[in-house]
């Protein structure tokens, strides 16, 4: 990847003396095959195709349930709103030519890496699909599946199809996140020349487009799969599959989504932080130049990384979170309805889809509530963007409470327990409150308006070592409050569900686990707005980079700096939100796994005794997996950063005119180095995550066979999953919070505190920031994807453990 010829041969003069030019990272931009096919269709053919698709979807929905029709309608309307948001954002001007050139370079680099990365992921997905097919062709069937006539072959093909569909939708979710960010960044930069509020509105609406598409796809994908299986398998007909068993067929969808999300997060995280660390260590620390300075050869790679690491990966991540939570809640709802002999169980099974349909509605209102201010200018006082975003979130929370209450009364009312819906509504409130508290805790520990980050910044004034010590201690401390909140939420929701009045045939309460599932749904009932705030961060970060590289006035950079600092906080808060929801979702998936083992083994499997040596070893292996995975992820960033540091140093030595603006850096070389390294480095930790539970379960299954313990493999995997979840939650909280705090401590000093930019305090803070980069954007986010993937893979692979 080389710079354009005219750039290489440009006359040696100051950047400001002539129009700025930047390299194209690819000869042409990249679009996925499906997008290219749709573009080549004429309008009439596309209209006919859409009508036929909608007709087929609504036909299956009508044959399944009116609830499914409602879900389809809401999702399609949300897609229409996302189209409106896209057109609104793209209608904004891109600014002067130098901004456009930088944005094009970022977009080409991001799309090029996306194509290569997802090409690699797709090959691995097809390989894993073949493995799943082979396993399912020779596995045992549950008594329910045998009674319904669902053979091994049919079960195998259904699971593989669901896995591939989940992987495809997760990939599309990632592409949507990146597609909007690489187009909105330059428009936010241009708007910052006029007013901070306009720039904020564009960034929020761009993030809103991505959020609505991601959540809408997760909901409609599961709804289509559910209705297709319902109609195709003739569910609830005499002698065939019962509707309460149908959600188990969707497990493959969640596994496919988790698989893609893990590798997207790993590859994107290694890319963005390898480039960021390399750029900061040489540019800021060694050369003393500002962040995103055009003289830094790694600056374009750094800005590309914001899109592939924070936007594409986060889109796939939240898609997977919602899919896993919906499927696990549907399984538990069906199991409870079956035990309680509820006459029409469809409400309990489809309740998660309705909750997230309302999420699309209320989050849309929250997004649209953030508007520009008339007559604002670049010289107007900068309103705190966090306050504006918080107002929108508060409005969304209030609407979530109202719609959740309506949903529980509509779908969870049953004559057997007339007031059960009220208990489940209270479970939802527990989840909503938990989400709000999680966001507040994460903000407290990562926003420089509060004491923890300011104390960390103060530690920078005494050197690099004290900065690192303070950051590590802050991260460790930050795990306490979230764990207490999760503990209270799980106990409260379980108790409310257990006292709902729903009983099985023996008179035992059965609503506890479903109550926890409802609390998880409550926590994720504002997921679209939370993802909007998360997407806002990297868009604002990219906008600041474009402003700095195009050498805009200092007043414009001040606006983007404020947006960037808030973006760091929103990214940290949404990561805390994601960890909390992952903890609850993993608890549900763990319960679903135990139910599935019971169904396959045809014996009760309710407890895991860690006093059994083999089971305890499984727990140790699960805890070890988290630490080893984290080590490999951080080491991957370190090795990538070393390559970038060496390349940037080489360019500064061989092209001394770079520092005087007399020679152009070779941006493309750094992009190529980081892309190649990220693709290479993501394989080892990803393979560890996939192979470990399968290998452990299979080995202990064989051991159990020879020692007369038929369920040993399943028990050891359950212990592994349990310990990995507990350790993973704590590790992810520590890494995400410490990394976010280090980043904002640096931002706080850059506002002029403790000596400001270039001071010794600032250099120490930059060191802390570089240490925290792989924590918060690679290892931390990957871990909470990992613990959910471990849960889904054990669900899919449960038969080989028995």
From TrEMBL:
The keyword Transmembrane applies. One of its GO terms (cellular component) is endomembrane system. Its main location: membrane. It is a multi-pass membrane protein. Signal peptide: none annotated. It is found in: Endomembrane system. The chain crosses the membrane at residues 41-61, 67-85, 124-142, 154-181, 202-226, 246-264, 348-372, 392-412, 419-441, 480-498, 510-531, 576-594, 615-638, 686-704, 716-735. It is an enzyme of class 7 (translocase). The keyword DNA-binding does not apply. This is H(+)-exporting diphosphatase. It comes from Arabidopsis arenosa.
């Amino acid at each position: 990847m080389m710079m354009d010829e005219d750039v290489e041969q440009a006359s040696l003069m100051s950047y400001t003396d002539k129009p700025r030019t930047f390299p194209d990272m690819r000869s042409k931009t990249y679009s996925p095959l499906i997008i290219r096919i749709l573009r080549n269709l004429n309008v009439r053919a596309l209209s006919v195709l859409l009508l036929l698709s909608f007709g087929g979807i609504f036909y299956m929905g009508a044959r399944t349930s009116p609830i499914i029709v409602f879900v389809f309608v809401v999702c399609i309307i949300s897609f229409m709103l996302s189209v409106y948001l896209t057109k609104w954002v793209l209608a904004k001007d891109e600014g002067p030519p130098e901004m456009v050139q930088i944005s094009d370079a970022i977009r080409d680099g991001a799309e090029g890496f996306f194509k290569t990365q997802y090409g690699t992921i797709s090959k691995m997905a097809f390989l894993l699909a073949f493995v799943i097919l082979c396993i399912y062709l020779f596995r045992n069937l549950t008594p329910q599946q045998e009674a319904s006539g669902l053979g091994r072959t049919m079960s195998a093909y259904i699971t593989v199809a669901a896995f591939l569909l989940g992987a495809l939708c997760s990939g599309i979710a990632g592409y949507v996140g990146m597609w909007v960010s690489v187009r909105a960044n330059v428009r936010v930069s241009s708007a910052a020349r006029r007013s901070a509020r306009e720039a904020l509105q564009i960034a929020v609406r761009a993030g809103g487009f991505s959020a609505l598409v991601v959540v809408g796809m997760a909901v409609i994908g599961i709804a289509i799969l559910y209705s297709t299986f319902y109609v195709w398998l003739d569910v609830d007909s005499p002698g065939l599959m019962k509707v309460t068993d149908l959600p188990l067929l969707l497990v493959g969808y969640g596994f496919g989504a988790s698989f893609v999300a893990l590798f997207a997060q790993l590859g994107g995280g290694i890319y963005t932080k390898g480039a960021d660390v390399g750029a900061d260590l040489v540019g800021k620390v060694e050369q003393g130049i500002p962040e995103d300075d055009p003289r830094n050869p790694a600056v374009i790679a750094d800005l590309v990384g914001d899109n592939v690491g924070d936007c594409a990966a986060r889109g796939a991540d939240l898609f997977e979170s919602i899919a896993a939570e919906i499927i696990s809640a549907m399984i538990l709802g069906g199991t409870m309805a079956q035990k309680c002999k509820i006459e029409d169980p469809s409400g309990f099974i489809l309740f998660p889809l309705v909750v997230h349909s309302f999420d699309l509605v209320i989050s849309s209102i929250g997004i649209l509530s953030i508007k520009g201010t008339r007559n604002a200018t670049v010289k107007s006082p900068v309103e705190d963007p966090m306050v504006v975003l918080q107002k929108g979130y508060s409005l969304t929370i209030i609407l979530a409470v109202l719609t959740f209450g309506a949903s529980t009364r509509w779908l969870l009312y049953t004559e057997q327990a007339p007031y059960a819906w009220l208990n489940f509504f209270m479970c939802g409130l527990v989840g909503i409150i938990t989400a709000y508290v999680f966001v507040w805790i994460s903000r407290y520990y990562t926003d420089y308006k509060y004491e923890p980050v300011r104390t960390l910044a103060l530690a920078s004034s005494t050197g690099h070592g004290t900065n690192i010590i303070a950051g590590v201690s802050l991260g460790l401390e930050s795990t306490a409050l979230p764990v207490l909140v999760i503990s209270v939420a799980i106990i409260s929701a379980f108790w409310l569900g257990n006292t709902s009045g729903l009983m099985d045939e023996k008179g035992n309460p059965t609503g506890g686990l479903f109550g926890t599932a409802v609390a998880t749904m409550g926590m994720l009932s504002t997921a679209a707005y939370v993802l909007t705030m998360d997407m806002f961060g990297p868009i604002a970060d990219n906008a600041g980079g474009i402003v700095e590289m195009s050498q805009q006035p200092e007043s414009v950079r001040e606006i983007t700096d404020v947006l960037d600092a808030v973006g760091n906080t929103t990214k940290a808060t949404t990561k805390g939100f994601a960890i909390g929801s992952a903890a609850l979702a993993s608890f549900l998936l763990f319960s679903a796994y135990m139910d599935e083992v019971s169904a396959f083994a045809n014996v009760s499997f309710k407890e895991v005794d860690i006093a059994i040596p083999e089971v305890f070893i499984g727990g140790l292996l699960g805890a070890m997996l988290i630490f080893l995975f984290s080590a490999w992820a951080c080491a991957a960033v370190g090795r990538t950063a070393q390559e970038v540091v060496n390349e940037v140093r080489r360019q500064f030595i061989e092209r001394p005119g770079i520092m005087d603006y007399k020679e152009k850096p070779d941006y493309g070389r750094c992009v190529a180095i980081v892309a190649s390294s990220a693709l290479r480095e993501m394989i080892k930790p990803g393979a560890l995550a996939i192979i470990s539970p399968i290998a452990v379960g299979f080995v202990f299954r064989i051991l159990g066979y020879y020692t007369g313990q038929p369920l040993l493999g399943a028990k050891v995997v359950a212990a592994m999953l349990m310990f990995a979840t507990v350790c993973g939650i704590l590790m992810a909280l520590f890494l995400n919070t410490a990394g976010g705090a280090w980043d904002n401590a640096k931002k706080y000093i850059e506002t002029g505190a403790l000596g400001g930019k270039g001071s010794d305090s600032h250099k120490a803070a930059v060191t802390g920031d570089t240490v925290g980069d792989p924590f918060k954007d690679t290892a931390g986010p990957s871990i909470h994807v990992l613990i959910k993937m471990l849960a889904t893979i054990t669900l899919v692979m449960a038969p080989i453990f028995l």
